[in-house]
Amino acid sequence: MYLVVEGPIGVGKTSLSRRLAARYNAELKLEVVEENPFLAPFYENPASFAFQVQVFFLLSRYKQLSQLSQGGLWTGSVVGDYLFAKDFIFAAMNLKDNEFSLYNDLYSHLSPRLPTPDLVVYLRAEPEVLLGRIEKRGRPFEQDMQASYLSDLTGRYDEYFRSYAGNMMTIEAGDIDFVGDALHESRLMELIHASLGGVTVGV
User: Fold this and answer.
1) What secondary structure letter does DSSP report for 7?
2) For a Cys-Cys bond, which of 5, 19, 99, 103 suits 51, CB 3.0-4.6 Å?
């Protein structure tokens, strides 16, 4: 089984991914975020660091996920807190002209080499919910993030998943508390398990 949790910044991807990995005794694949040396400078000066931050994410995510395509390396279940296509969503927001063309060329060569998840859980929430959660987790470089940026990002996620061709489910994360409410967590786990359908998982 290859299960992915996706959604905008602060929606709860990593928290849910950890719970799913524990439920299915799965390998947990978390995206590299704070290790990106260009991320903090990007939030201070997006125009100057957008290309560097996107290429770092693109290559680090590709290296991590390409291991799933190598026979014999991964024989069990895997849960990840990002979809490779998220990189393109952010790049389309942050890059322009020649930089985006170069990025797009790299992405189009790398993306087809990676496996398709058995299920993508799309967590979505309104910008005000995201801002509250971003403030709560306390990453210094995220604290000046604007609601307008998150609104644009959420709209792009919605647009992407409207035409997503794979198996997916959408969860309104602003309506549930799967971290603090055990009943909410249990119901969400049941929904996700049902959406996996005939996929064989080890519990």
Assistant:
1) -
2) 99
What's 91's domain CATH number? 3.40.50.300
Whether residue 202 is contained in a domain is answered as: no
**CA 30 – CA 92 distance, rounded (Å):** 22
Helix (H, G, I), strand (E, B) or coil at 28: strand
Rounded to whole angstroms, the Cα distance separating 34 from 37 reads: 8
pTM greater than 0.90: no
81 is a catalytic site residue: yes
Sheet holding 119-124, edge to edge: 27-29, 78-80, 2-6, 119-124, 168-172
**pLDDT attached to residue 199:** 63
d(CA 72, CA 81): 22
- Provide the residue range defining the domain that includes 75: 7-195
Does 52 map to a domain? yes
CA dist 15 and 27 (Å) reads 15
Q: Which residues pair with 6 in a beta bridge?
A: 122
- Select from 58, 57, 53 the least CA-distant residue to 40: 53
Alpha helices, DSSP H, located in the chain:
13-24, 39-44, 46-66, 86-94, 97-110, 127-137, 147-162, 182-195
| Choice among 39-48, 68-77, 112-121, 144-153 with the minimum mean pLDDT | 68-77
- Catalytic-role residue among 81, 87, 105, 181: 81
Q: Which helix (H) or strand (E) holds 80?
A: strand 78-80
- Structural domain tally of the chain? 1
